[in-house]
Amino acid sequence: MTDLATIILRSIAAFFVLLFVCRLMGKKLISQLTFFDFATGITVGALAAAMSIRVGVPVLHAATGLIVWTVLTILIDMTVLKSLPVRKIIDGESTVIIQNGKLLERNMIRNRYNLDDLMQQLRERNIFDPSQVEFAVLEPNGELSVLPKTQYQTLTAKTLNLSTSYQGMITALVKDGKILDQNLLQNHLTREWLFVELKRRGIDDVTRVFYAALDTSGNLFVDVKREDELNYVQEVED
Length: 238
Fold this sequence. Notes:
The chain is an alpha+beta fold. The chain has helices at 3-25, 35-53, 59-82, 84-91, 105-110, 115-123, 181-186, 191-200, 226-237; strands spanning 95-99, 102-103, 133-138, 144-148, 171-175, 178-179, 209-214, 220-224.
């Protein structure tokens, strides 16, 4: 077998092994990754790359390394869930950076967190004056949580004592021409109801629908596929 064919086969094996171990490790957003998660991800990726292209490394050895790292990561995650001291060691803990408009320099130095980083993260939250901040907390993942002082907070319906109606998430009923029967069932609706609603909008074929969703008020939003939009526009112009 040529080296190229070997690399192709090893890459396919590495792909599925990496997919398997990533599924085992669970889901976490990039913005929520701690330094430990970041370092683990890099190491696992490096092991998968070695398994893929380093022909001199036996596949079994590289796969074993991946599995060992995965098992250790899962064990650490389970321990972190149950032990606060271990969680502090592995993930770190939140640190107050601003309190009542006052910058806590010692906390910044301890976290090697400089003024430029602080001001950038404040500006990202439309705050250009640290004195407007009641509390700013540096999270273990490097994100800055900010609580503005009361007089600088955005007005909400609650602060204005205004009554509001419930507004939840919309439910997708059709995606790319495919009916989501489970979502219909959860909303106590039928395909017949959907077909009637689409027909009222001049749509006699559900495959023409790119996206259709129902909001909490019972209103159906429908967006047709691009080619149908173009055909509709052409018909109107004619």
